[in-house]
Amino acid sequence: MSEEDEKQALHRMLRNVRGALLWKLEGLSEYDVRRPMTPTGTNLLGLVKHCAAVEATYFGSAFGRPLPGQNELDFGDDETGGRDMYATVGESRERVTGFYQRVWAHADATVAALPLDARGSVPWWPEERGHPTLHTLLAHTLQETARHAGHADILRESIDGAAGLREGVTGLPSEADAAVWKRHYDELEGIARNW
Question: Is residue 181 a part of any domain in this protein?
Fold first, then answer.
């Protein structure tokens, strides 16, 4: 595989997982996209905001290409680590998702403009890894976004049962098979309780 083919493959996978993450918000109320679903407050809109911050950093400032309007959202620190994991009171769903889509365009331009061996700078990484290549940051961001898209899969399924990559591509049986899923769930619950 040529370097350009590899770059395009990684970039295509990143674009696919971005779309899956954003789809997890579709059709949900403001409450459902914001409500904390874990003891640490993980929520769908926060996952989107976090992934936007990751891409803005790794494909923007890391390569000396800061995103115009990068401070549009509040990414400051708080007592739990950072406000990049939730939308603040003043940050609407449209503002967060619109920012994420602008980040995509900026990141896509960086990926298109630079070769895979272009070096960036990530000051909070250990010194020996602090100047990663575009290739490394593409792989890292793909992994990070896929990880959070997986979190979003679980959160969305917990809210309304929707699962999969996007509308119509779920990999799950239809709602008509709800009884099959109920039996499967009950069987797994029984195994867990009897272990």
Answer: no
Q: Is residue 12 part of a domain?
A: yes
Q: 169-190 pLDDT, tens per residue?
A: 555 556 556 778 788 878 889 8
Give the alpha-carbon dihedral of 179, 182, 184, 187, to 10 degrees: -130
Tell me the CATH number at 53: 1.20.120.450
The model's pTM is 0.88
Adjacent-strand bridge partners of 133: 119
Residue 82 corresponds to which tokens in the numbers above?
A: 């950072």
CA dihedral 97, 101, 106, 111 (to 10 degrees): 120
pLDDT, tens only, 38-51:
998 999 999 999 99
C-alpha distances (whole Å) from 32 to each of 12, 23, 154, 169 are 29, 14, 13, 22
CA atoms lying within 13 Å on the CB side of residue 25: 23
Q: Residue 176 falls within a domain, yes or no?
A: no
Q: Are 82 and 76 in contact (CB under 8 A)?
A: yes
Q: Give the count of domains, the chain.
A: 1
- Is residue 19 assigned to a domain? yes
- The structure tokens 């990141």 sit at 107
Query: Which neighbouring-strand residues pair with 119?
Result: 133
